[in-house]
Amino acid sequence: MWPYFMLVGLPAAIAIYGEQGGKTQRTNRYVIDAFFLVWLLLLCLRSTSVGTDIYTYESWYNSIKQLPIKEVMNLAISLKQELGFLIFYKICGILGINFRGVLILVALISLWPIWRLYRKESVELPFLSIVIFLAIGLFGIFFSAMRQIIAIAFSPYAYYCTRQKNWAGFLATVLIASLFHKSALILMAMYPMYHLNFRKRSSLGAVILITAAVFFFRNSIFRFLTKAFSRTIAVTETGAISILLLLIILAIYSFFMVDNRAIDAEMIGLRNILFVCILIQVFASVNTLAMRLNYYFLLFIPLLVPKIAMRCDLRNRKIAIASVVVMTVFFTGMYFVKAYTGEDILQIYPYIPMWAQT
Questions:
Q1: 6 pLDDT exceeds 90?
Q2: How far is CA 30 from CA 34, 38, 123, 170, 174, in A?
């Protein structure tokens, strides 16, 4: 587990040093850089036994690279597989890249946009952003789901197009992302939701009522949606409500801690994305597919929480300072408790480097 302790420990050490020496934006960026650099190394140097789907992806790659391009196209149609990912595989095969090289390429392609997003946007309390990111379940998928993590890497581009009201760029980004994983089409919800003006605290009541109604009828709604999209997906009680409760608590925090005079359009947009996360997460207790759909939006929640804490109402200043300490400890502990005691469905614990592969 020591690589994962380093993943958290190195940014923590830099953050503590920055606090003692006078925090600067440069130091905050070093915190983010340390996290993503260690994460990138872990992805590039891992054994193919780390990540439950990696063996399948390796076998798939060895088959795809030997096929003519026409057969690759036919395979995408007949098996209803994402064409963008198959072409990516084929290009890697043509270039003579082995599967280790493919793992490294996918790691770079998927992490770089997220790294840039956090480096630019997480300028306040970056270590808090890191531990929230680790705790909410998005981190592990990058060790296993190669198609989807490339699609997730388009989320920052979709976000910036949304923020700039560039609807043409937004649509193009989402469509390209869907060529790597069809689930990326869920990003279509980002543009309209981001620009809703949920500023007043009364909006939170509406969100909670809607969430409660959706939760109560979640099984029926899920069956209707899967039937509408001609999909047969079983309704199963997964018991996954911990992240949902956590997101609701963060939504309450985002309304009652913030000074409404200090909130801007970007924070309102990020808070609206949090509402999307809550509504999608309601269905995680019905089928694990919902959690995978939520990855595209959960990516932005660690950026919102520090902004709320730093723009708190002056009457809540002491509470805000205490909440930052509590959340940092809580999310750090939550990550390591899940790492040690969780089901490890993605098979990423303990970390096994490639030179220890059997």
A1: yes
A2: 6, 12, 10, 30, 31
Angstrom distance (rounded) from CA 170 to CA 165: 8
> Can you say how many angstroms the Cα of residue 69 is from the centroid of all Cα atoms in its chain?
32
pLDDT grade for 150, boundaries at 50, 70 and 90: very high
User: Is residue 348 over pLDDT 90?
Assistant: no
Predicted confidence (pLDDT) per residue in 209-242, tens digit: 887 887 777 777 777 666 655 555 555 554 468 8
Taking the C-alpha atoms of residue 206 and residue 224, their distance in angstroms, rounded to an integer, is 23
The half-sphere exposure of 352 on its side-chain side, counting CA atoms within 13 A, is 12
Helices (H), 122-154: 126-135, 146-152
- Contact predicate 83/181, CB 8 Å: no
Q: What is the pTM of this model?
A: 0.90
Tallying the residues shown for the chain, one arrives at 358
Let me know: does 275 contact 304? Beta carbons within 8 Å: no
Give how far Cα 177 sits from Cα of 110, 137, 280, 284, Å. 11, 21, 19, 22
Q: What is the mean pLDDT of residues 36-58?
A: 92
d(CA 213, CA 248): 14
